[in-house]
Amino acid sequence: MKNQIALIPAYQPDKELVYVVEKLAKEHFRIIVVDDGSGQEYDEIFHLVSSFAQVLTHTENQGKGEALKTGLQYIAKHISPPYLVVTADADGQHKIEDILHVCQSAEQFPDSLILGSRRFENNVPFRSRFGNTVTRLVYRLNSGVSVYDTQTGLRAFSDKLISLMLSVSGSRYEYEMNVLIETAKKKIAIREIAIATVYLENNASSHFQPVRDSCRIYKEILKFSASSFIGFLTDYGLFCLFSSLTGMLTFSNVVARIFSSILNYTLNQKLVFHSESSIVKSAVRYFLLAGLILLCNTLLLKGFVYLGVSAWLAKIFTEILLFLCSYLVQHHFVFRKGHTV
Q: What is the distance, to the nearest Å, from the Cα of residue 50 to the centroid of all Cα atoms in its chain?
């Protein structure tokens, strides 16, 4: 069996951390704990932990992502391969047998990322159940890969993947989502191992801030939504203007879409997807898509009007229906990353 390393980021932990590292030490893990700026009042806990683990310290809180990367940098510098790394949370919500289980899977599949996948049943807090459902959907839209538990902190991988883990951006909770996104882009297999779902005191120890950290996790699709909304306002405003002046439904829709498409392409190419494709190639793909969507848009618009819906309201319904289609095609085809000229 390869050397097993447990990496635990910790911010203001309770004595559950001491219990976790003691149990892992008995299972012959080499343990690295990163104190992510917890403060002097937690020195006693980290002193107890140091009997079983190497403790690395951030003088100020930098976030879970930075804590993980600090630990990974230490591993890459001081430990010779081959080895397995398992990341676990400090609050005791990962059972020792589950940690062992994901490590065994990582040894069996050294080229894969192993996730300890919780099943959100019974008395799981609503924010955790809801958050994982939304994140699962966003990840599927972005990557095309289905993962049941995108937010699990229990993950295992071999030394073959440590350079990838160090290259992933993100300082806080978004880092773990970015790891999944980059793993999917690199065509690295993701394997899920079912683990127990444990929430101590309704997950009161979690430092996850729903609004702030969700914005970090979902920032790509939020940026796309903002760009699309700006394009929609431009498109809708011009459509209303031209249709009022001319009374010509199709003409107004086509002219408004031409102007809004140019604006939307520029925003998405520069600010949303940070495309590495050549401008010519991405522009050709984008405007082919825009032409197809325009055709669908016009047909839907006429259909709604035929059914008695007002033209202005029909325009809103049509844009909502085509939004998701546009996002998926732009993300996976128009502005796909890794295709350079």
A: 33
